[in-house]
Amino acid sequence: ALGRRMLLENPSTYLAFAESEMAETDFLREIAQRTGCGLLLDINNVFVSSTNQQLDPRTYIADFPLDLVGEVHLGGHDEQEDEHGAPLLIDSHGTEVVDPVWTLYAETIIAMGPRPTLIEWDTDVPEWPVLAAEAERAARILAPVLQ
Predict the structure, then answer these.
(1) What does the mean pLDDT of the chain come to?
(2) Which residues of 60-83 are buried (b: 16+ CB within 10 A; e: fewer)?
(3) pTM tops 0.90
């Protein structure tokens, strides 16, 4: 109806269900295959969810159907603690992308090849030089894969 291919984004999660019938990566793959949509891989969401659930983000990326990715998102998050003192990350789009997310992005780009990349910064937007530096960092990571 829209005349455009839709991309479904992996979410930021803050808890896991006690029972799930399938892994999130399998669920996203199945939706994409049944509908013909593509996937939008948000690397910060992977990092946030993995930290919150004490999982390895590299395992999530290894299981993600990278061949279906049409775009990549990066963003910042807020760091808090839960009631037990464990790290609790909140996807806020209001800070710079942290180094572990940049590293995961670089590893993912090497694995799947270049994809259009968007840095999300929706709150507490800084001065232009900070935004430009984030975009330049993404461009430096993409450059060797584009050649």
Answers:
(1) 95
(2) bbeebbbebbbebbbbbbeeeeee
(3) yes
